[in-house]
UniProtKB/TrEMBL annotation:
Organism: Tunturiibacter psychrotolerans
Gene3D superfamilies registered for this protein in UniProt: FAD/NAD(P)-binding domain
Protein name from the UniProt record: FAD-dependent oxidoreductase
Keywords associated with the record: 4Fe-4S, Iron, Iron-sulfur, Metal-binding, Oxidoreductase
Nucleotide-binding in keyword set: no
Stored InterPro entries: FAD/NAD-bd_sf, HdrA-like
Amino acid sequence: MRSLREDNLTTDLVVVGGGLAGVCCAVTAARQGLRVTLIQDRPVLGGNSSSEVRLWVLGATSHMGNNNRWAREGGVIDEVLVENMWRNVEGNPVVFDSILLELVSLEPRITLLLNTAVYEVEMSDRSTIRLAKAFCSQNQTFYVVEAPLFVDASGDGILGFLSGAEFRMGAEAASEFNEPLAGSEETKELLGHSLYFYTRDTGRPVNYVAPSFALGDITTIPRFRELRVADTGCRLWWLEYGGNLDTVHQTEEIKWELWRVAYGVWNYIKNSGNFPEAENLTLEWMGTIPGKRESRRFIGDTILTQNDIVGQSVHVDAVSFGGWAIDLHPADGVFSSQPGCTQWHAKGVYQIPFRSMYSRNVDNLFITGRLISATHIAFGSTRVMATCAHNGQAVGVAAALCKEQGLLPRALVEPNEMRHLQQRLLRTGQYIPGVAGHDNTDLAQQAQITASSTLRVDALIPCGEVALADTPRALLLPLPAGRVPVITLCVDVSEASSMHAELWRSSRPGNTTPEIVLASVDVSLEAGTEQLVHLDFQVSLEEQLHAFVILPVSRSIAFHQSVGQAPGLLTVSQKMNSSVAKSAIQTPPPGSGVDTFAFWLPDRRPAARNLAVRISPPLEPYQPANVVNGFARPWRGANAWVPEPSDSKPTLRLTWDTPQILRSIEIVFDTDTDHPMESVLLTHPERVMPGCITSYRIVADNENVLAEVLENHQTRRTLALSSPVKTSNISIQILSHGEAPPAIFEVRCY
């Protein structure tokens, strides 16, 4: 009797699941020195972001539709999104596939098994996984993979399920975790699956004959009147079904129902006569597997809840963060008469604790992606892909520490181990809100840091454009402790009136939601153009923070605009993004446990403008020492060094009292962490962020050129020296950059 081939693999870490969480986990662990086997049951990587599903990658930035400024996730997922912008501004999902495949293929320590599904595990005891068995349908090979550590990033949790890890499915009752958004009773209801299609204009009429299984009566979809020809791809997220079914074992049944719906929707658009603009359109692509939202959620040593998200709980073991709304959908999906979703935002981002990222009862099992330990309500926020990817990176570094020290995941919660994990994560680009980088081995921390010049913000020069004061606007400024400077606006006034301006701050350090009025000023205005209006709030701040200079709506005032940009400085207006909110002021129902507050949103480039202002005395938020202050993005301040525009040879210099031996230099550039960089479907106006340094040179002792990089678009770059260099100083010379002032957020030397 014949038998199929069997390969036995021994590795340091097994990662099951090749979505963004699994990819970021595997790449991170491999870069930390681990041998990794990445097992993916699909032919491509990326999960819901892949060309098989085609959902754009989003996280805390939420389409720039919330108050989470500068909140794009860091590390590997940032690297992926920035690279996708560089190569793929058109949002082609096949190109995105290739970027992920390249990312993994470049790591020699990763063994990638595509089209390979785990079907069995063996335990060395009741709480320890010894090996996993998997089968590849394409090469008819069984794999037996043995390792000391395992990660379940599979979405449905196949590894955790087979190993006996505790999990939940369904929605908890409000009383269990004191979650006001939860129902009064525990239910089996879940978030369902979605399936999309793409269309293409052929330039000539196209007939369409629907398959016999297509939905015939479109009125069974209560929202059918909202259908628009332009809505293709993941704009059709609300074509959702399955929340009342078993989203693991009935997923094929759910898929067939979604095919029925999707083909029926397209048949209605093409053949109802209500959409003449669809005459030349053809059905370019139909999803073959649905995008799955929710199934099993595994239990760690803590369970994230609604109150952690809305209240922005502080966790001593924070290793990641989230910021998407608590985004809940009716279980009946497309057949529900309720809105397709309800989205309730917090006032800022929230920390995610490490204790939610490993199994409570299987000792060597990490859990990541949408599997982390959270209630159904909290899952409504933590489930989105950029958040999952960021969690995956946290697990990748944690696995490396466990391997190096012979530890199991739970041991990393010990305070000294956790500080080590957090600092190592920060070095990989992970952003942990409120946690500063302090690495005693970083030689840059011991250097004197100077620069050829430093930008002082004394004005944002008018560009000739004006904007009517038809919506509340605010200038979001990084202000130091001490007296608030005088802000001078340039305005056109059509008739004599007055202006009431206010200075606001958030109630929580690091948030950018205006909540507390610090001062106000009233100014009388005469009719006339290009008037200078001086706002002297006559107040002092006790600490460095971002503050809002809020300006009123007025039918008689127009503000002069500026195209000037600078890190950590934005003009925002009170408005809504209909993709993630229902109004400009979030007004939840009473007793929901969710806050009422206004959204203050910037415009996207190229339309984005700042208010034209003068600032006296000038702001000086871009000091050279910022590059070693532990924060590699705007947070309570600009946290960057920026040179003066007139500086013809902008240079940052690190000097040591005694010569140091350098082996590597790490630099963080400005790729605008406020930009969501949606990965597919949307197009983008720029390949490189305007403040990014695109070429630079590093020189030691004024003459020894260590590196000259002539093309850069990435956030983080590491120069690993071919041999150690002994030096008393290095200079980072900026050779070219985009249209905005160039910025460096962090420099590390080892």
